[in-house]
Amino acid sequence: MRPRHPLHPYWMLAPTLLVIGLFFLYPLCVAAKDSFYRWDLLTEPEYAGFENYTRLARSGELVGVVGRTVTFGLVVVGASTALGLALAILLNRRGRVYAFFRSAIFSAYVVSWVAVALLWMWILDADAGVVSRAFRAVGIPTMNWLGDPRSALYAIAFVTVWKITGYAMVVYLAGLQAIPPTLFEAAALDGAGPMRRFIHVTWPSLRPTTAFVASTGLIMSFQAFDVVRVMTQGGPVRSTTLFVYAIYEEIFVNLRVGRASALVMVFFVILILLTVLNLWAFRAGRRMKEAT
Amino acid sequence: MSDLSRTGPVGRSLRGAVLAIVALLWVGPYLWMTITSLRTLDEIVQAPAYPLPQNPSLDAYREVMTQVPVGRYLVNTLVMALSIATLQILLALPAGYALAKLRFRGRGTAFLLVLACLLIPPQVTFVPVFTMLGPVGLVNTMGALVVPFAVSAFGTFLVRQALLSVPDEIIEAARLDGASELRIVYGILAPLVRPTLAAMFLFSFVYHYSDYFWPLVMTTDDENRTLPLAIALLREQGTGVRWHIVMAGNVILSAPVLAVFAIAQRQIVRAVAQR
């Protein structure tokens, strides 16, 4: 449509573009610039060339952070996707009991990260936690889940899975309900049992949903911060220092804005790659929907 | 429906086992949180723990209230989350209208700019925004918590998509009636896309009510602290095992969100699952 006045569209967009410019695009440019400076927030910034990047790469800091974040992401995505699918299939039924259980699982996704992290800190507490006590009562050797560098990363991955599985389940439920029932009926008529119906009908129909759930989960786990800040503060021995926490630590603990900005830029590039993957999955899902 | 177990006893017992595990894993922790919050310090320290509190008491809640100005932080949190959700809708409507319905130079570019922001989460912008706001004295203000989120790129996108399906004739008729453009946007188009707006509002409110990251980074004193920050601090202040107090704080923190969830579950699920 033609605008009533040629300037109207610009006025309508002005507040949005102003906020976007000030708080999305400009900060990104500032981070890019700051990543080439040495700056401790107190004295004047000093030009440093690529020093921040080379230091990150050479000290092994970058490799360590990326490695931990990727491990964390893969564990979280693998477990939450598989669990989400299994729960969606088993709970995709009418009835109050099923509705209640679906809500219970999904509610974890809605409750704040702080509440979830504190709750699991208590449950996993090495001395008084209910898990350790139960293990001790039955005679299984227990460990300090959050305090041991061997298990801490997996403990926070477990808590993250607990929180976001409800999201995967809800997306899968929508995907399941979009599969035409005739497909199942045809398969059943051909004498396919539940396992074969899953392999030949459910799984192929849900492939785009899986791609979408997995790539969204990967983005979520790369952005994980609260769970680390509340439960482990990156420790023990940096075993849970994930990407965003490393950025936070550089600026607020070490007061190294340049180094933090360099990490931000690397993080941004990784996120773009993950989002491209995500969009591709989203598109594939659309195309599949249109085809059926 | 993918009926995996029209089958007999095997399917049924498998389902029963899954329900039991789900109950233990996803309902159990909430119960444990509530039970713990009703205990006294003695009972927390004592091992073995009784499954249920011997003398249920609200002492832990009283303790939270004296340690933390819960009322003020709750008001801060609600003001922040409601302002953000409201602003996002107020700004997304005219922007979505321009992008969906009006022809003008630069529309494609403007739309691309909005979409590009989907790639830039707060975890990328917090370092530069912090160094930007510091010198101008905006760190530690409600503005620093609200204004950076006044635009939701995804929300603007959703409103634009919803407005695309509104027929042009409605707008033309309103113009003929002499309605101003702002009146068309807020008075006529907004009610037509109400489900989208409701989903956006709920999602945004729940997200920002619970947000820990941004308030943590942007506030350093008590004045503008939000509830999630204060509850997380309960544990850091704690000397030794004071988990009943932390869990009482947790109940206070989660109750409002769980209440909103109970009331508007359908809309929230739709907002999340819609693709």
How many domains of chain B, as an integer?
A: 1
Characterize the overall form of chain B: globular
Q: Shape of chain A, please?
A: globular
Unreliably modeled segments of chain A: none
User: Mean pLDDT score of chain B, rounded?
Assistant: 88
Based on DSSP secondary structure assignment, what is the total number of beta strands of chain A? 2
Order of helices and strands of chain A: HEEHHHHHHHHHHHH
CATH level-4 homologous superfamily of chain A:
MetI-like
Helices and strands of chain B, in N-to-C order?
Answer: HHHHHHHHHHHHHH
Count of helices of chain A?
A: 13
CATH architecture of chain A: Orthogonal Bundle
- How far apart are the first and last residues' alpha carbons of chain A, in Å? 33 Å
Q: How would you describe the overall organization of this protein?
A:
The complex is a heterodimer of chains A (292) and B (275). Chain A is an all-alpha fold and 292 residues long. Chain A has helices spanning 8-34, 51-58, 61-91, 96-110, 113-123, 130-138, 152-177, 181-189, 194-205, 207-222, 226-231, 243-252, 257-291; strands at residues 37-38, 46-47. Chain A has a single domain, classed as Orthogonal Bundle (MetI-like fold), CATH 1.10.3720.10. Chain A has a two-stranded antiparallel sheet with strand order 1-2. In chain A, β1 and β2 (46-47) form a beta hairpin. Chain A is globular. Chain B has a single domain (69-273), classed as MetI-like (MetI-like fold, Orthogonal Bundle). The longest helix of chain B has 32 residues, at 70-101. Chains A and B meet through α1, α3, α4, α5 and α6 of A and α1, α4, α5, α6 and α9 of B.
Short description, anyone?
The complex is a heterodimer of chains A (about 290) and B (about 280). Chain A is built from 13 helices and 2 strands; from the N terminus they run H-E-E-H-H-H-H-H-H-H-H-H-H-H-H.
Short key terms for the protein model shown above:
heterodimer; A: 292 residues; mainly alpha; MetI-like fold; 13 helices; 1% strand; B: 275 residues; 14 helices; 73% helix
